[in-house]
Amino acid sequence: MSKSKVVICEHPLIQHKLTFIRNQETNTKDFRELVDEVATLMAYEITRDLPLDTISVRTPVAETEAKVISGRMVGLVPILRAGLGMVEGILKLIPSAKVGHIGLARDHETLLPREYYINLPTDAHERLLIVIDPMLATGGSAIAAISSLKQRSCEQIKLMCLIAAPEGVRAVQEAHPDVDIYIAALDERLNEKGYIIPGLGDAGDRMFGTN
Ligand code: PRP
Ligand code: URA
């Protein structure tokens, strides 16, 4: 199978807001608000290829044919914790999406993810699922989340992250060549602790004010 598509969302508004998200001086409240706003803007890009149906509609002056999004239903699957911060922003554009959750934590020594929670809509396998996480570092968490969804018969999956390391993109493409990846920035590399350089630090800690 050929490699999946990687889309870098280069819209100036996304890039501008991402700079303030990266800045270590940005406080928790502003960090949350900016992540929420970027998620909304990225949702616009990730839904670009949703199929449309044509319906009849009566305007105040004429009958016409117009487009509506066809029956394809969307599900959001944030990876806990940090993925939670992107959910509301996407729901602003897709309010009817259902939301499942996957809890994964990276072991700080091995960098391997451990699944501690999963709860999906019962019809998840019929939906286009968007897996959400601000950071794609080694790719271990995203790969595990997508594998978990596939084990539950989910087949239509996209991945949305704010910042990715080249190592993580390659790993996801190898493990899941059918899953397109949407990111706001492709950074330089990982450091020896598995942090993205330059990145934004620990996304969960910055989102929730922990450390
Ligand atoms: C962070 C981040 C991703 C993961 C990325 O979560 O939100 O889920 O690391 O790293 P990877 O690509 O190397 O797997 P973390 O495990 O720190 O959990 P948290 O969201 O609860 O802070
Ligand atoms: N997880 C984070 O939160 N930040 C990184 O840079 C890498 C993994």
Which features does this protein show?
single chain, 211 residues, alpha/beta, nine-stranded mixed beta sheet, two-stranded antiparallel sheet, 30% helix, binds 1-O-pyrophosphono-5-O-phosphono-alpha-D-ribofuranose, binds uracil, magnesium ion binding, allosteric enzyme, PRTase_dom, magnesium
Strand content: 25-35%
Fold-level CATH name: Rossmann fold
Number of helices: 6
CATH class term: Alpha Beta
Task: Give the end-to-end Cα distance, rounded to a whole number of Å.
Answer: 41 Å
The average pLDDT is 96
Percent of residues in helices: 25-40%
Structural shape: globular
What's the β-strand tally?
13
Bound molecules: 1-O-pyrophosphono-5-O-phosphono-alpha-D-ribofuranose, uracil
Please write out the topology.
Blueprint: E1 6-8, H1 12-22, H2 28-46, E2 52-58, E3 63-69, E4 74-80, H3 87-91, E5 98-99, E6 101-106, E7 113-119, E8 128-132, E9 135-136, H4 140-151, E10 157-164, H5 166-175, E11 180-186, E12 189-190, E13 196-197, H6 203-208
Parallel strand pairs: 1-11, 4-5, 4-6, 4-8, 8-10, 9-10, 10-11
Antiparallel strand pairs: 2-3, 6-7, 12-13
Helix pairs in contact: 1-2
This protein binds 1-O-pyrophosphono-5-O-phosphono-alpha-D-ribofuranose and uracil.
Uracil is lined by residues 135, 137, 194-196, 199, 202-204.
